[in-house]
Amino acid sequence: MNNSERAGFSRDIRDIFSIPVIVAALGYFVDIYDLILFGIVRVQSLKDIGVEPSEILNQGIFLLDMQMGGMLLGGFLWGIIGDKKGRLKILFGSIFLYSAANIANAYVESTSGYAVWRFIAGIGLAGELGAGVTLVLESLPGGLRGYGTTIVATVGVMGAILANYIAKTFDWRMAYLIGGGLGMALLIMRIGVYESGMYKQIESSTISKGNFFMLFTNRERFLKYMKSIMIGLPIWFCVGILILLSPEFAKALNVSGTVSAGEAVTACYIGLAVGDFSSGFLSQYLSCRRKVVLLFLIFTSAAAAGYFMLGGVSSGFFYMFCGFIGFAVGYWALFITIAAEQFGTNIRATVASTVPNIIRGTLIPITAAFQFAKGYAGILRAGAIVGIVCLLIAFYAYYHLEETFDKDLDYVETN
């Protein structure tokens, strides 16, 4: 490597590990901690506030739906603010809201109070990832964007591991307080982050910014948006149904030993960290997003099918397979990167915030379909049916997916 090449390599490393990337990664780390914490402390927290054992699954799904409903609403709210007022406005506002809500979660005494604060926390949690990804994509050179979002996702998903450790070490109420404290500390760190250069170029212009309805005024743009959403359906089916409800599935599968949601989540998110890292770097190595998405959709299909064949295995093997599921759905960062790269600067934050949160919000109809099917077919067949539908939709969306590697992002959408 000559001096010029070494200088270029050093410059690339500085860009990849720049302040926007580091702060976005730490922000997503806290985001995932708070997002996953409820799934880990679900059983114990509901028992402590007086929910009957027979109602823990139903009440848990209800509260999860409230959280995801908040994220669905928050995705639209923060995305529009991000395009109208700037990426940094999302970062500060969303962190403050979810931190305050998680502190309040530590003091709930009823399911109704729990539901209100999970909904508010969901609104806050919705802004972090979209703003971080948008800021990173608009701050890095085209050939390095994938590396930046890969680092954000890989560091971020490790927050689930910390959430499980904290939940095992402390009471569930203290776990919520720690999450809120981490968010407030992150808020202070964000002070030194600068606004996206691409956004500043259009900030004072008369160009329509943050107009969500622009996604529906053009047929091609609308279809592109809907397919960006559909390709992520299997991710939250696997995490929201197979992993978060793993104690109930393990019982139906006659898994030997006790299976806890916390350990299943930890195993899944370790796999997810490896998967996000692998998919992101593979897409950079191949200079192609589409091939990698297809590969991971195939992995996800195999993992989901294998899950329902784990009858009679040990809890240790079950956790190991949860890790494989996490790896298989590790195209999360890639999927959001592709979505954001397909749209102009004036609606990019709207897309980057709404797409992942609509996917999270689809957990509501997914759980509703699962609950309905479970009443007729039992928990295992219901899970398999819903999983097949999610995967078929994702493969359809993949077929029409646009290649966005190294695409020039410095443009705006017009009516």
How is this structure best described in words?
The chain is mainly α. The protein has one domain: Up-down Bundle (Growth Hormone, Chain: A). 77% of the residues lie in helices and 0% in strands. Helix 3 packs antiparallel against helix 4 and helix 5 runs antiparallel to helix 6. The longest helix is centred in the last third of the chain and has 37 residues. The radius of gyration is 20 Å and the shape is globular.
Describe this structure in a few short sentences.
The protein has 415 residues and is mainly alpha-helical. The chain has a single domain, classed as Up-down Bundle (Growth Hormone, Chain: A), CATH 1.20.1250.
List keywords for this structure.
mainly alpha, 0% strand, 415 residues, MFS, 77% helix, globular, Growth Hormone, Chain: A, transmembrane, transmembrane helix, MFS_trans_sf
CATH class: Mainly Alpha
Q: Could you spell the SSE succession in H and E letters?
A: HHHHHHHHHHHHHHHHHH
How far the N terminus sits from the C terminus, by CA atoms, comes to: 48 Å
- Give the DSSP E fraction (strand runs of 2 or more residues): under 5%
Radius of gyration: 20 Å
- Count of helical regions: 18
What spatial form do the alpha-carbon principal axes imply?
A: globular
User: Into which percent range does the helicity of residues fall?
Assistant: over 70%
Please name the CATH architecture: Up-down Bundle
Low-confidence stretches: none
- How many domain units? 1
Give me the count of strands.
Answer: 0
CATH topology tier name: Growth Hormone, Chain: A
Q: What integer is the average pLDDT? A: 86
| Major sheet summary line | none
Look at the structure and name the CATH superfamily. Answer: MFS general substrate transporter like domains
Helices and strands: which structural class?
mainly alpha
